[in-house]
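To whoever picks this up:

The parser on our side crashed when reading a file containing two proteins. I've narrowed it down to the boundary between the first structure block and the second sequence. Both blocks are reproduced below exactly, byte for byte. First block:
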Amino acid sequence: EPGRFAGWPANYGIWAWPGAAGSDEIVVGFVAGKLKVPAAGHACDRTQPFVTMQARSLDGGQTWHVAAMPVRTPGGRALSADEHVAPELTAATALAAGLSAQPAACPGADFTHPDFALLCARTGLEAAAVSWFYTSNDRCHTWDGPYALPDFGLPGVAARTDCIVLGPRAALLLLTAAKTNGREGRPFCAATTDGGQTW
């Protein structure tokens, strides 16, 4: 769209439900904001809010329908985009202010539900980054959460959606953490055996 910027689907997720020929369903997440070409860096306007979006295809990616992601976010802010916007637009600021959609304990998910999806989110990439997750049992038409992820005793946890399902209540999340110097870059794995209630 003219004047718009969209990006970073790898920070959100892609989910697929293979079906009969021609009916493969795919959903991908991303954010959209206002276009602004700076001297260096991403071509987005940091003074304008982003909107968390998802695109859905019912024909294996040949055609797509795009809409705002139906997910509750801290203070209504965009997910996983804090490093790209001014501080007053960040999810971290909304969390610190106690605004709506604070991450809470997960009641437990069935990771093998046929229409299951899991989405991870974060406030940033470096020290003090906080992460949480959402679940869906209807192919991303609705999302439950946000559900808190612990800090694992690390300086900050920067979750991106990367989940390996091991069973109905068991899964691995492949995550990154801030290093001891506070900068991003330490990969680690978190495991649950109780549907995401503990990690």
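<<boundary where parser fails>>
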Amino acid sequence: MSETTTILNQLQHLLPLDEFQTFVNARKADRYTKKLSCKDQLTILLYAQATGKNSLREIETSLRIQDSTWYHLGLETVARSTLASANEKRPYCIYESLFYELLKKCKGFSFGTASFSFENDLYAIDSTTINLCLSLFPWAHFRTAKGAIKLHTLFNIRSQIPELIVMTEGKEADITAARKIDLEKLAMGSILTFDRGYNDYAFLYSIHREKQTFVARLKDDAHILPLESFPVTEKGVLKDQRIGFVLEEALKDYPEDLRLITYYDEVHDKTYRFITNNFVFSAKTIADIYKARWQIELFFKWIKQHLKIKTFLGTSKNAVLTQIWVAMIYYLLLAWIKFQTKFKGSLLDLTWIIKEMLLRHVSLINLLNLTPKTLPTATAREAPLQPAFL
């Protein structure tokens, strides 16, 4: 290999591009295309995500300055008008399909911070809202004078990977989106944790019927009947009880007994009541499972701060969803690289390094030996780093 390709080229080679082209062909998304194919659109949008570009003009100007580089990427044009048209008309679902195809490569990751003695898959369900200007995005109704979209997410806490994302208008209730989760696709014995916004008894019972565990906060106005008390030995656990519902409607939705854990959080000086259908795990483990739910909040915070999902390159629904799906694809690429190479830095360190070196002819393997401290020296070099196969 006489010359190392750019980092952006190497990122693309990690994608299942054959399957992506199948999705493109099925939707006839490249029909009437003259210069900018869907693959080219994907290349430019990945470039924009990795480098944090805010506008089509900024993308076009940045790439035109490096015309020899984008030519080697296989791009025939970087005109903002052409990209704007592609973002508006190319169906976003081809990028959604690419996300889930790439997700298959990410199965089995385990670099999360939660540590438990069991091997069950551990998921958090929650949503985050991305505010939009209603006058520019009239399709995204939320409130009278506001627009928004919601990202409803099934997040694997162990792997730190979103395994399901449902995007809706901001006004859609969390529980409505949660009911769309195909529970049969989750492994038997999976654990799901969520806040009180998902505390719908029929939804909880659907999880129970699939022989999966749920851990949630009990509603303050829930009418319950204590049936049995279990011994309490663990620090912070105030009560461990078997309970049943009292009201007829609640019993109809959830006709079996539940477990109620009353737990005192000394750090925040707050008492919580958790309900679960699991009578095997210790009471402290149940409390820790709910505490791990905070990981999805950190994920939402991270993608909002470090991916381009708050400012958009187009105002149509298709353009917005396309950009978000490409952002999620980029997140999976970062996670895959970090896991497979055992990169010692943080995910943010990795984004900074890739941002600075994206169009350099550097081996990705060599690149990951850099740190934020050594990066300035590497970027100042006239000659590229020694190439190596990825």
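After patching the parser it read the second block fine. The first strand starts at residue 122 and ends at 132. The radius of gyration is 24 Å.
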